[in-house]
Amino acid sequence: MASVLKRTSLKIGMIPADGIGKEVLPAAQRVLEALGSAIPKPEFIPLLAGWGEFNKNGKALPEETIRVLKEECDSAMFGSVSSPSHKVAGYSSPIVALRKHLDLYANVRPVSSVPIPGQQQSFKCDMVIVRENTECLYIKQETISTNPDGSKIALATRQITSRASERIGKMAFEIALRRGQERLAAPKGKESWWKGEPKVTIVHKSNVLSVTDGLFRESVRSIKEGTDRYAGIKMEEQLVDSMVYRMFREPEIFDVAVAPNLYGDIISDGAAALVGSLGLVPSINAGDNFVMGEPVHGSAPDIEGKNIANPIASIRSAALVLSSLGYVEPAAKINAAVDAVLMEGTYLTPDLGGKSTTTEVTDAVLKRL
Ligand code: GGG
Q1: Is the CB of 317 under 6 A from ligand 1?
Q2: What is the dihedral of CA 286, 291, 295, 299, to 10 degrees?
Q3: From which residue to which does any coiled coil extend (predicted)?
Q4: How far apart are CA 161 and CA 144, in angstroms?
Q5: Does domain 1-107+281-369 sit in CATH 3.40.718.10?
Q6: In Å, how far are 317, 320, 364 from 367, measured between CA atoms?
Q7: What is the pTM of this model?
Q8: What is the pLDDT along the chain (369 residues), one digit of tens a residue?
Q9: 345 Cβ below 6 A of ligand 1
Q10: Contact indicator for 324, 4 with CB cutoff of 8 Å
Q11: ipTM over cut 0.90
């Protein structure tokens, strides 16, 4: 978010939506509640959305949910959604719609490796993927028609605008600037292994999509070129395919990566594989006036209701919300407790090779807060 002025109240809209969202959001709530006087007493407002809600009441995103978020909440947490893979009349993804309604134009996804006993990690990864959140193919303008020979043709419009690309570029450079300052200010013993200058990598495919990705690339570049503010930040580019390859070969070379919506979605799931599990990767959907935390993972129907979903992505997403609202120290406290649990390796959910439940991992984090 643009402003990091501390809010004096914390009214958090809680939208678990579908599947394991209903299990991991309560875990994040327990952690926020345990912070005590470090933050204003949070008020949690339960809100409806999702595929389940659509099947029950015919609306994936009820107007009341949008109203309460806009009029009563300072921030929100979203769990996960089980959108079907085929077209369903009247259904539209509630998370995509929420990002639009609240103008949450950036999806910020930090991906960092923590040494976990029993996990093979021969590299270091500490990067932030900044995904444009409002356009690209996600404007969902699709048509299908039939050719004279009876075969079908489906078309999708991909929208890239200079406005959306510039503001996501600005967000990426601001994040790189802040990360650089935080690294310089890190106390002795807690120094980052990243020794270079802050860096923003622009991810695109403008050698093929020279008009749309070309505009994205030019617009992000113009942000650095238009001011001295980012003079200390290196800017480089990667074609999206090469980005995937290099991320898997040498993830330690990336600091902040900025990408159009679809590439950003794909590379962040790939990056999650590097750090052990999608269940570890948090995100925030951020606009200039509102922030919504959201674990990067989906609704995982195969493990729904078993109390074995990894709550860490959700807990770290709550920490990201707090630090966006100006509560940087309580957020750091949450992340330190999570790191301690992971490094100890006693309480791990099955996605990390452990046998612990969602509740046990949450309890372990609470103990170390
Ligand atoms: N928390 C991320 C999540 O729920 N992912 C699933 C997802 O986004 N599905 C597609 C959609 O409904 O938009």
Answers
A1: no
A2: -100
A3: none
A4: 24
A5: yes
A6: 19, 20, 5
A7: 0.93
A8: 544 556 778 999 999 999 999 999 999 999 999 999 999 999 999 999 999 999 999 999 999 999 999 999 999 999 999 999 999 999 999 999 999 999 999 999 999 999 998 877 667 899 999 999 999 999 999 999 999 999 999 999 999 999 999 999 999 999 999 999 999 988 888 778 787 899 999 999 999 999 999 999 999 999 999 999 999 999 999 999 999 999 999 999 999 999 999 999 999 989 988 888 999 999 999 999 999 999 999 999 999 999 999 999 999 999 999 999 999 999 999 999 999 999 999 999 999 999 999 999 999 999 999
A9: no
A10: yes
A11: yes
- Would you say 308 and 357 are in contact if contact means Cβ atoms under 8 Å apart? yes
Q: Which atom of ligand 1 is nearest to the CA of 283?
A: 1
What the block records as the tokens of 105 is: 């134009």
Is the distance from CB of 259 to CB of 240 less than 8 angstroms? yes
Candidates 299, 314, 305; CA nearest to 84 is 299
Tokens 């947490």 map to which residue? 77
Using the structure block, give the residue that is written with the tokens 């480089």. 236
One-letter amino acid at 77 equals: M
Start-end of CATH 3.40.718.10 domains in the chain = 1-107+281-369, 122-275
The architecture that CATH gives domain 122-275 is 3-Layer(aba) Sandwich (3.40)
Mutating to test ligand 1, I would choose from 95, 99, 107 the residue with most ligand atoms within 8 A of its C-beta, which is: 95
Contact 200, 224 (CB under 8 A): yes
Name the phi and psi angles at 49, rounded to 5: -175, 165
